[in-house]
Input
Amino acid sequence: MKIVVIGPGALGCFLAASLADQGAAEIQLLDHDSQRAARVAAQGILLERNGEERRIKVPATADPERLGRVDAILLCVKSHQIAAALPRIRRLASPDNLVIALQNGIAHLAFLAARDSALPWAAGVTSVGVTLLGQGHIRFGGQGQTKVGFLEKKSGDDRETRLTELAGLFAKSGLETAVVDNIIDHIWAKFFINIGINALTAIHNCPNGELLMSASVREQMIAAVREAITVAQALGIPISGDPVAATLKVCQATAGNISSMLQDVRNHRQTEIDAINGVLLKEAARLGVAVPVNESLVSQIRKLEKYG
Output
């Protein structure tokens, strides 16, 4: 299977390195930055894991025309970067391959449905923790489950076999992965976790696990997730299990991980606040649901984005 990973961020580099390391598939990393792509192609991806460093060879390019036919595209850019990535996706996508969107939050779902429903979209969520330390340099922060599935499943779609094959390659690479029928439900389950963890780590400038050391911050985390549950219930979103307990569990399991939002704040990049707590505010306002804790989190992240 030939797989293209679009986006050399923490998750993109981790997936590319993990899959390439096993040699079970042909992996290519596609970047919009030709200099960064050349550096990764020459030096590989440096992965820090359990106190050890390994450099893994991963082919990389900024030219989609060099890639030829592909079987699967893993879209690992942030939600607000999807629009810019679409031209590259269209040049690679075909009715026979897969495009798997792997974004935090839920803002990308409406965008994909409205703009490019004709593309062969699937989606995925993962609770694997990874920190981007530099160009092509990542640190593994904690194991977690990955789930993939189609946004719109059609009967007789042979891409389901290809998605199952892809999940198998993930598993062989050490990523516990399952193909699910209700991927939207799992995206919301991850959304609750993002709501509870990401903004708070950026505000307090700390790894995930340190949020649990303060009783007041822990309560704020729980309150933010409970507000999201209220909005989801008003929208009729099925909720399985206990999102609060799941958030606390992931926070502990990825205790040493630096969240993507904190990484963005530290590197003075636009965060994903609009795709996470921000989109919750929009839905809450439309439904007439009060979400004061999330309003406060969004306000604080806005200040960090503006003033640092």
